[in-house]
Write a structure and sequence with these properties.
Layout lengths: L12 H11 L5 E5 L5 H4 L6 E9 L2 H14 L20 H11 L13 H9 L4 H9 L2 H11 L15 E9 L2 E5 L7 E5 L6 H15 L7 E7 L3
Helix pairs in contact: 1-7
């Protein structure tokens, strides 16, 4: 990771929506809170829903699990050629990386990203780059940097400086084709969480991934989930 550090982004739908619209996400899509992972709670999420973003604590238990997971899934490293995956090279940029993984893996949708926008320009420029090259491209993108810093100063929580140590981390959970993936810029490749055959099943598949995170640290309560869904009119 480079020495460049950004202020951390808040897991707040209002902040994420303002940020997303500024860089070029279609106004037909918006982030909403996920209040529960049981079947009844998931029924309240607008459809279609195309991404979950999970904020969770990085604990010793999680770090140990990551080492074991890397060894088990190393044979999958080169099998995810159709996904949009970016390495995190900027400190505290995991919120933006999570957004970009959500947008990049849904850009096939009609009118999902505005033409001529900051987001469209970045996705087009990075489409054929390696995950490491994508991360470096984000480092040099002044428009994205300014938009992130502006959004990181919004919200209801106290302002955290770029140099402050933060032990919370964002990952994106997205269905690509018929597979559910966890996208984490700290990891060497996307994590395959199995089949999710229908788009209508996405919220249940994504909830299952989130529950795995919670089960690893049952004494932790610092989990926040937002979902990217079609805006209801």
């Amino acid at each position: 990771m480079s020495k460049l550090r950004w202020k951390p982004l808040e897991a707040n739908p209002d902040v994420m929506n303002s940020y997303s619209k500024e860089i070029g996400l279609s106004p037909d899509w918006e982030f909403v809170d996920v209040y529960g992972l049981d079947r009844d709670s998931l029924l309240y999420l607008p459809q279609p829903c195309c991404a979950f973003i999970l904020l969770f604590p990085i604990t010793e238990k999680y770090e140990i699990f990551c080492k074991e997971e890397k060894e088990k899934q190393k044979d999958l490293q080169n099998s995810s050629v159709s996904v949009y995956f970016m390495k995190q090279t900027i400190g505290n940029a995991c919120g933006t990386i999570g957004l970009l993984h959500s947008f990049g893996n849904n850009q096939y949708r009609e009118d999902f990203v505005k033409e001529g926008s900051i987001l469209k320009s970045l996705l087009d420029a990075s489409s054929n780059l390696s995950p490491e090259e994508k991360g470096k491209l984000l480092e040099s993108n002044e428009d994205m940097c300014k938009a992130h810093q502006k959004s990181a100063s919004e919200g209801q929580s106290r302002e955290i400086s770029a140099d402050e140590e933060v032990n919370l981390h964002f990952v994106a959970i997205v269905r690509v084709g018929t597979t559910i993936y966890e996208f984490d810029g700290r990891k060497p490749f996307p994590i395959d969480h199995g089949k999710c055959n229908e788009e209508s099943d996405f919220v249940h598949c994504a909830a299952g991934v989130c529950l795995k995170f919670m089960a690893r640290d049952p004494d932790e309560a610092r989990f926040t989930i937002v979902a990217l869904c079609a805006k209801q009119t």
